[in-house]
Amino acid sequence: MFITIEGVEGSGKSTQLLRLSERLRRLGLPLVVSKEPGGTPLGRELRRLLLEPHASGDAWCPDSELLLFYADRAQHLYAVIRPALAAKQVVLVDRFEDSSRAYQGASGVPDASLDRLSDLVLKGLRPDLTVILDVDPEVSLQRVEVRNLSLGTEFAETRFDHAALAFHRQVRERFLQIARSHPDRVALVPARDPVEQVEAAIWARVAPKLRHAGFEVS
To answer: Containing domain of residue 119, as a range?
Structure first.
């Protein structure tokens, strides 16, 4: 069972992934929790390059950014995701292919380029369920600002935190388009609701998928 959690910056992914993973562990399910970028030792080096703000301020070539994200994904699939699925474990990942579709697509990468890299790296593998946490960028970016101030370190920030509001609006619209295009795979969950309500809405989507896959859940 392969589940991914997606959404714009500040949508509450980390909180909801933690709550879902704790619930799955309480149920005794065999579980692997990971993230992109950074789900492997190599991926952590790539994550630093991709996400940390750089003092030079050099603009990223969209294709360079895209290739590094897919290099991280290829290693992640090879070292973590495919072995765990082969062992019949539940794999829960913070960001996956849909983030590339949303973020790199919003950066100007053509869909044809995304399709080619997806075919090369994923080889047909898709999540059984993708939860997209949806929230207005104006709200999500306020959350990001509060989060970064509370953590009090530069490491808390990413390059994407500083992107223009128009970019984040494009990212959200691309996530919404993904949800419209893949209703059987994608569950769109409003993320402005209280944390417990969002958690319940996610579980309402996850539990039936787990039962269908043969896992015992209450």
So the answer is: 2-212
